[in-house]
Amino acid sequence: MIAFLDTLSQWMIPMTVLLIVVWAAVKGVPMYESFVTGAKEGFGVAVMIIPYLVAMLFVIKVFLASGIFADMKYGIGVAMEWAGLGTHTDSLDLMPLAFTRPLTGSGARAMLVELFQTHGPDGFLGNTATILMGSSETTFYILAIYYGSVQIKKIRHTLAACLLADLVGIVIALFIGYLVFGGR
114-130: per-residue pLDDT in tens? Predict the structure, then answer.
């Protein structure tokens, strides 16, 4: 069964492309011209969003280089201690990942891999970090790309709503991690 599924998965994309080509031929769609038109539009959008990407990457690098995540981790540890929750080092080890995830997907993946190398992928931290990655989004990247591509300048409540959704996702990931995988 596994061999069959591996073979099937290898052929899915080529067969999907072939299905699209055959369907377009049946419908009489000029495939090559349509493809070139779409590629031109995609290139135009890519050129249009480059300034937004550069600005976002600059802000991400400033945040990462400033050491603000270490200070935030320390502050959260103090707040947890003050609230009587103790300093759950497992949760605090996940905080840099939680802070980075809304900024950059590749930076968050790098932190996830580092966490796997340090603590292993199958323990509480590895499993909870994986849940955290799946339950949050690269909010600033998405806003920069999508809003930048359609020239939206005023985002109103979008950023606050997205960051709130990220926070809820992170809290629920921690809760599920502790519930399912335990923790110290």
Answer: 889 988 898 888 998 99
